[in-house]
Amino acid sequence: MLSRSAPGLRRAAGPLGLLAVLAAVAFPLAPVEQPEAVYSWTAAEGDAAIPLLPYQPVELTAETSCSAAREAAPGQVLLSTVPQRPDVAGEPLRGLRLTADGGALRVESAGVDLGTAELPGGDCTLSVVSDPARTSVLVDGAPALVRDGDVRPDVAGAFSEVRSGVALRLTTDTRFETRISPLKAAIGVLGGLALLGMLVVLHRIDRTRRVRLLPRHWWRPRPVDGAVAAVLGVWWAIGAITVDDGYIAGIVRSTGSNGFVGNAYRWLNAPEAPFSWFYDLYHLWSLVSSSTPWMRLPSTALGLLCWWLLSRLTLPRLGRFATRRWVSWIAALAFAAWWIPFGLGLRPEPWVAVGALAVYLAVERALATARLLPLAVGLVLAGATTALTPGGLLAFTPFLAAGRSLLAQLRARRDLRPLPLLAVLAAAAASAVFLMVPDQSLAGMLEAVRVRTAVGGGQPWFEETDRYRRLLDWTFQGSIGRRAAVLGTLLAAVGVLWSLGRTATGIATGPARRLVVGLLLSMATLALAPTKWTQHFGDLAGYGAAVLVLGAAVGSAPLRARPRAFVAGLAATTVVTAIVLAAYNLWPYQGAWFTPTFSTIAPRILDVPLATIALVAGAALVVPLLARWTWQRAGGEPESPLPRRLPAPAPVLAVVLAGVLALQVLTVVRVAVTHRDSYTPASDTISTLRGRPCGLQERLSVETDPAAGLLPVADGPPGTTVSVETVPVDVGGRLVPGVAVAGRSTTPWLTLTPEQRTQALPVVVTTSGTLQADDGLFLEFGDGTRVLERRRIAPELPARDDVRELAPAAATTVRLAVDAPDTARAVATLPRSPRLTPMTELLPPVRSALLDWPVAFLFPCLSPEPLPVGTAALPEWRVGPPMDNTETHITYQPEYGGPFVAPRLLITERRMPTYLAGDPLRDAVQLYRWVPTQPLARPEPVVTWHTVTGWQQDGHPRVPGIDPVG
């Protein structure tokens, strides 16, 4: 039965849908506002820093007078856009170079020798004009040298060996730094209103038959809800960070200063579009506070929402079995088994998990009510979920799992013709476009995709097996929690598909089958994601928890009457349990600090791995049962029921999941309690609630002057000492007395400080150079009468590192002893006691610093260095991860599109040792001071805003080593 206005409304649905589709098509093509930043410089200003990002300008004009070129000595550089003496640790760029050559001027750009331009007699002007199409050398406006193609130079600044007669003018590449124009905003509003109007029309014209959406008393809290909320709350306060929390935090917190959501660590800071709308929400959230607990609240709220969708909507749809009292508690266990290893933090998996489950429910609602509105809403949600991350494409799998039923239902609709119906469905799916490019042009988005593809970092679909190989690794990628959730769910999925229709379990066959098929299709869809990390399994948290509940329902059925099914299920459970228990309880980065020894190995009892015990115990049950079944089958006997005392597969898996969950949470609780004097997420949460929200920085101190902590020579040293000649050792730009690691010698005995005697501070020796295997360098501790202990400084150290040792009990003195070949290959400072300054004093809150991505999440009080109007800032400080973490190289290497390649060429990096409260031996982070290699001017750009079309493309930014020159 239709409402009275249905005929008119039916006619409106198609046009509104078509209007929404047209708006979605026009939205990326609409104009955007783009800044134009122009830098001008003359040689009289001195050398200048203009570190571009992308590295080449859109256009550049360099000018010099012929008289300046003639007066310059042969080989003298009139202009270079990269420093002539960069820091040796920086990655080189290829700039523009104008070199005097007698009566001529040699020109090089982007590593290409353009030739030599002869200078005519008299006064004249020589210009170099470069853009993406060509680079020309002009003498008084007349072409002297012309090179077609893109040979624009890289630019880190302007450098000259003369102080007059040279000028530079360039326009930075700001193609990514766009903002929405009034016309684009109007198209978006029009499309949104048309979509909303279409949904209202669908609501009015749908059939009026009512089907209850929510179960009775859905709003009443239950004890299980309190338990889930408590677990999520505890995990919010103490849970470990994910591997990408710092990466996303850096991107999110840079959005305000950069003007758009760009990848601030690689890919030329290209936009994250079309998968970035949740970054905008996190950016707005971070404006209130950037503290770790505050930034983790959204994922915790999403966990509560996912649980509500699971417990109030999904389980009742799956059948009558959901009314049993134990089901809600099994659902809570299944949900926690997924959410604890995957759901906390800034990554998009919690968003995708909620979106995918919501789409499944919308599809089921459409099938249950034969209405079009839930289907359209499901398409809108699927599009929004896809706009989160490439893995969000799995949100469309419920439509595939229910494809046949949906098509039959749509064909049965006689109130909408095929074309209006198609327009309605297309409009719902196309609504994602408004989230994908809200402030980017189509050209900018396509260029960002091109840069990411050219630089690489992803894997093709046929390497999807790497994800499962990592799941079985003995690293945090294959941690015990991740294995338990994924492998347990796969086991449940197989069991449900095998048992549906064969066992009376109270399960609704259609919804259950669609749920399991949707899960398996979603796992296949993950192959389209460009990276293959196991963290992406978190996209399936909502699906996975529901499938685990179905598996428990199937496993609780009287399978003993079906011996083959029982034995197969028990065998599969045994194998999965053994593989899960063979994993380690590991977390990435800071989550690995203070890890108990039992978490660094597979769980065991009396030094016997639990995996082995589980496998042997399972085999002891399965093999006799299999032999019994085989014997009966060979004799033609009917299969007899199995004994009731045999453990069923479902309870066994539930015990494993509960044990793994307890191991994960209680281990972190133990760390939080035993190391509350140091940095843990728990101590961070407590400090933030007490008004100290600076995270790890609150518990770090910095050794600003290593020479200030040198130990005094002891009075009356034990034994005979050999006088040793000291040599200067560079420690973070400070020269500290040290010894060459050559020959045989010992330093005088040095007196330990009271803090070192109580082990509050370590004895520190800094090495420089390369220690070889045959280099004997030792720390000897004494008590005034004898040597108490001798410790070797191992040759596996990096090229430069601090050796930190706690003095043994009763030690009062220390010295260095050398026993090495005569040729010195390394030097070591004399032992010292670090004089420390709190990091919050050295870098007060709101101070800007370059925050490397592995640690950016842990320093909420420091502002990330900006990347404004086609350039990169020249930071004074850099906060990096521990020295053994080399993953930050992408930010400083041009072949990765590192945003801070050009600034790195302009400075010398000085390391300043840091010390963690409660664990002074730990290399927690590295702090570096960036000191310019020479005085540099900082020209200010002239910035104007222009409106550009959505398809405007001014060449391509060139990634050195990847994009060809010319």
UniProtKB/TrEMBL annotation:
Domain Arabinofuranosyltransferase central: 181-628
Example of a GO biological process term: Actinobacterium-type cell wall biogenesis
UniProt keyword annotations, A-Z: Cell membrane, Cell wall biogenesis/degradation, Glycosyltransferase, Membrane, Transferase, Transmembrane, Transmembrane helix
Chain segments annotated as transmembrane: 185-203, 326-344, 375-399, 419-437, 480-500, 512-529, 541-559, 565-587, 608-631, 651-673
InterPro entries in the cross-refs: Arabino_trans_C, Arabino_trans_central, Arabino_trans_N, EmbABC_dom1
Domain Arabinosyltransferas concanavalin like: from-to ranges: 34-175
Predominant localisation class: membrane
Arabinosyltransferase C-terminal domain mapped to chain residues: 807-956
Keyword Transmembrane helix: yes
GO molecular function annotation: arabinosyltransferase activity
Highest taxon in the source lineage: Bacteria
Family membership: Belongs to the emb family.
Stated role: Arabinosyl transferase responsible for the polymerization of arabinose into the arabinan of arabinogalactan.
Name by which UniProt lists this protein: Arabinosyltransferase A/arabinosyltransferase B/arabinosyltransferase C
Species: Pseudonocardia hierapolitana
